[in-house]
Amino acid sequence: MSGGAGASIAQAPPAATINVGLQPSFVVSPVPHPHPHEYIAVIATDEGLIMRPHAPGLQHPESHVRVSWGKAPKVEELQGDAGGSSVDWTSSVVIYGIVGILGLFNASYLLVITARSHVGCLFDENHAVYSVKTVCAIPLVKDRAKHALDTIATRNIAHHRSSLITSSGSAGLAPPREELYDGPRVRFADDNDVKIMAPMADNGFEFQRGERPSSPTSSGASTPTSSESLAGSPVAKAIADRMSFWTRLSQRKADTSTPANHGSGVASAEGRQSLDSIVNSTRGEPEAVIDTILAATAPPPESTEDRRSELEDRVVRDCIREYIKGCMYFAYHFDLTRSLQHKHEQFLKSHTQEKLLAELDALPKSHSVGPLDSTIDPLVEPFSALPLWRRVNRQFWWNEWLSKPFIDVGLHSYVLPIVQGHFQISSFELPPNSHMSGDDVISPVDYIIASRRSRYRAGLRYQRRGVDDEAHVANFVETETIMRVQRNAISNIFSFVQIRGSVPLFWSQSGYNIKPPPVLSPERTSYQNMDAMRRHFQRTTPVYGPHASSPDTIVNLAEQTGKESALTSAYKSYVNRMEDKDVRYCEYDFHHETRGMKYENISKLINYLERTFESQGYFWVSNHMLLSKQKGVLRVNCIDCLDRTNVVQSAFARYVLNMQLGAVGLAVEPQSGRSEIDKVFNDVWANNGDAISRAYAGTSALKGDFTRTGKRDLGGLLNDGVNSLARMYSATFSDWFCQAVIDFMLGYRTISVFSEFLLKLQSTDPRELIRLSRIRAEAIATSVSCILDEGETLLSGWTVFAPEKLNNKFSDKFEEKVLLLSTRALYIVSYDYTLEKVEAYTRIPLRIVTKITKGAYILSPLEEASRDPIQNAGFSVTWLNTDLVSSRVSSYSYRNSPADVSLAHDHPTSSPTTGDTKSTTTQIRGGAKDVANRLSRMMSTASTSKSTASANPAQSGDTSFAAFKVLPVDPARVRNGSTIGYAEPADDLTGATTCKEVVDLITDAIKRACRDMGSVVNDNFIFEEDIVSISVSEAERMTSIYAKMEYGVKRLLWLGR
Known about the structure:
The protein has about 1050 residues and is α+β, with helices and mostly antiparallel strands. The protein is about 30% helix and about 20% strand. Strand 16, helix 10 and strand 17 form a beta-alpha-beta unit.
């Protein structure tokens, strides 16, 4: 394994390495690579955090890892065990794995797993599965890191977890046994019998021996059985906790320097006061009352450092919360991200590749490739010589971006892939039936569910819907059920895979209602919807097989009438028009068919799809002999792909389970009451629905009482109502910031997403940024083709934010304009993003440009991000009013008069142009409605109050000017190693990380072009002065009471915790 070079505190000399010309992440040892370290010792030193493996019997590890202190930490592998006098390993803390490194404003944080739950083993102890129980953030700042490690050690002792402090440096890394320690006695929790997806809170419930709770309650919402009281439901408690802001005010924490303390999720209520007391104690006008309330509930931090610390604390806390929801899983020794059949197919592929290389004599002579054996291993790990992270399916690897610092330096054993979804391992006894003989020996049946949720188009319910431009859909989940049946020493292993995913069209849904209607995106054309859907199925069909095993396998459960009908009809229409022989469509209006709580009617759908089940089949290995493969897949969806989808998928899985048992002569005969199979099966699928629902909607699944008990009752209906209210609250208030955190931790957005959030209190879909970037590039290209004369060379083109009219710096109306710089002139273009055509433009010859002013361009006073002169910058260009200036307007006639020009400009030029128009009417390619509005929402929020006299300076008769505010910059737009990225079309802006830097690049380019044209360009040609700068008094005057109230309440609800 190749590591980084640098000053080392290790005593042993560095081992010799061979330079193979590859990046460390691609360098793998010639023997099967070790799995990720199960225990890692961590200690803080003067140079940084030091880590090394902690394993029984490992006396002196060959190497250790150092993560340096600082905002941009350096990760490197150093030789030796760092056992010198400066490192006391007896004070180290042992963790279960590394999530990754989170880089923020003031510091970076190492996220580590400090507690885990043992879900169970996939048939043997080498295939153990764990869920993430607790994650802690260790700041990469020396003093704060030591405090965080002390806190972790203290918590481990208090919760009977092992901090695994070795008794002496000479003893080396001893096994984690309690009797080896002289200090506090700690040991690993004996949790081998824990088989639930998340740790259970101590809620006082008692369960009979052998039974599991209905659902992990740590999520704050679960589905009670019919016998449980709704008043005691965790859902009701969750609603009360979440709505507590109406009677209690948020209090800013006095110290936000130790994010490592996050994870308990318990907020202190000390020092909070009621809204009533503030209202009653405040006298005067309503505006004074509102100001007092906002000052008490959402006070602005005193300094930039405080502002960043507050935001950083919230980001770390929410990032940790995503990992401890109870739906994150990992394994040290095998790949969790692929189904059994997929692994088998990969194994065959790898053997074919090796056989071909052997025939070409491209393998070492010591490496021989024999013929495939007729027996197969159902748990085979293909490409086992590669590190675990190189083998996983990246679609389901949630911490890939956070792990990148360790991947880049080849620290394979410190990279632990984590999967979001649900894994549960259960077993049940088969009841005797007439087909069994007295000599039959039948072991308990192992029943396992493995749901893997995609990280592509990841996010929360109303934030991510439908498909994106990369043909990824929201809430895509692959669910595999695995069953092992052992009869008379013959082992039969079955696997069956289903998938769910949002309707693969461009659509959205507002969260400001309990049941808002889904709306097809008006800015998307029919061609774009068809293309995205086709590419989506072209991606899934090769992986899962045809979606068209006779007769149908796309199962749409959405309503065919009412609010959902528009989306349902569009889905059906596009599938039929696609005419793909591998894709068929089936409608089943779940709510209509099961109205009156008649959920037994789902059997009608199963009967209709009976031939589909028979033709698809399932993966079956009997005594290491492959008997069948699954051919095709069922793709089930409703609107959320949560509640209805989980109920129907569980019904499909139960039908297939009966088929599989029947295949080995163990068909289950009808029984009275609920059998053990019913209890285990229903519990597994109810927990699966709860886990997926918590990840996507923030609460447990609706209709969980039917999935869990097989019947629907009033208690379940009431619980669903409470869960629906909780979902509406999350969608309205909580999800906006959480979505920004998810995009950031997955590597889709940079840290600037939080500045954008503070400005607009919402963030932009990263793939929408890609689309808008393409729209801007097309706008520039269209403008060039319509405006520039033949032979005129374009130097650069930009899109900028500007007042609608010239000679204005502050206006009621702003628009996004195209600015073209050629070797001869500067063009200011008004572009219609809906029709994709040039509306009007003004041509300013470079020789008459007299001055460029650059500086702060501040339009909104509400938030720090909108007042920052570095990120709110612009420039103005001043020119002489001469006959050389020309303006034109695009029209559908040959008229091009001063009256037309005045529509887009403050006043006509001194010599208006008449005659044939230069601009052309471009082809309308279905450019979207509201695209211009969506682009404008990407900008800083401008005040819409009336322009003041100071914002419109008196115009000089000799000169005119145009003011431009540059668009927000996302540093490192194309993120190295990220799966998506977007870039400005202008190459000359590459490397700019702030709006001020963009202004400098643009103004320097205009200055050079003017000099090349022979203009007089002196030292004062570019003058630095604020374009628009709002003082505190002006901000108070310009901002209405309603704007302040709206922003303050949003900040309280979305940021105040």
